[in-house]
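Input chain follows. Return structure tokens only.
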Amino acid sequence: MVLLEFSIYPLDKGESLSAYVARCVEIVHTSGLKYQCHAMGTIIEGEYDQVMEVVRKCFEALQKDCNRIECIMKLDYRKGYQDRISGKVRSIEEKLGHVVQK
């Protein structure tokens, strides 16, 4: 199973990019994959081809009306493990003895 953290946004649309980010988050949401949004990006969990397909769809959605797009990705693969989006956080919380801020 793969965790993919990414952020994708246009560089030619001014300071406020939330409409473009929302367009991509909707693609992530409709993918059916487990995901988590945070202030600087989105984490999705699935098989390699599934998560890369989501990124491709986001790119194509922005490409329609954006002349310059930046995408930053970080990928973590661990064979035989699932539910790592929350499992990794739970592991840290257990070691700390308290819940971390979300």
